[in-house]
Amino acid sequence: MRASGSTTALGRFPWAKAPAAAQLHSEPRPDVRRADQSPDTAKPLFEKSTGSTGAAPADVSFGRFRLLPMQFLLLEDDKPVRLGSRALEILIILLERRGELVSHQELLARVWPSLFVDPSNLTMQMSALRRALRDRRNGNRFIITDKGRGYRFVAPVELSENEN
Q1: Are 123 and 105 in contact (CB under 8 A)?
Q2: For each of the chain's 164 residues, which pLDDT tens digit applies?
Q3: Where are the domains of the chain?
Q4: How far is residue 48's CA from residue 103's CA, in Å, rounded to a whole number?
Q5: I need a surface site. Which of 46, 54, 124, 157 has the fewest CB within 10 A?
Q6: CATH class held by domain 39-161
Q7: Which of 131, 125, 51 is nearest to 93 (CA)?
Q8: DSSP string covering 14-73, please?
């Protein structure tokens, strides 16, 4: 361990003040991190539908893919797609605002709330998402880049609600 690195971490990161044992055993779970989000980032996964139930969609289909937002799961032909949580969060945000430009700043603020991250992290996660969707291959076109501004989800989407 480097003493200078731990001193710097103590000043900048609140979790670094916890005892070493607590740091090793109490990593925050993804759902805990979501509870700390600012009001702008705590939006529901999708706007409520105009149907009589007013429930969020149970799944969102596009191309050969189906997103189950409540399970935080992406399927391709009913098989799970290996995709990291940050890339999946980006997909959910793009689907919430399908057809609209979502700025780099908004994506960074919603996917990494309360953290400063280099914009290259967004580029890397977007690349992983496009790779998983096979965007731009075999006629697939899901996400368009507006260079220097943001991204737009452009594929046709079908929303399905839970039948209770």
Answers
A1: no
A2: 444 443 333 333 333 333 333 333 333 333 333 333 333 444 455 543 344 444 567 799 999 999 999 899 999 999 999 999 999 999 999 999 999 999 999 999 999 998 999 999 999 999 999 999 999 888 789 999 999 899 999 999 999 886 55
A3: 3-35, 39-161
A4: 23
A5: 54
A6: mainly alpha
A7: 125
A8: GGGGS-HHHHHH-PPPHHHHHHT--GGG---SSPPPSSSS-PPEEEEEETTEEEEGGGTE
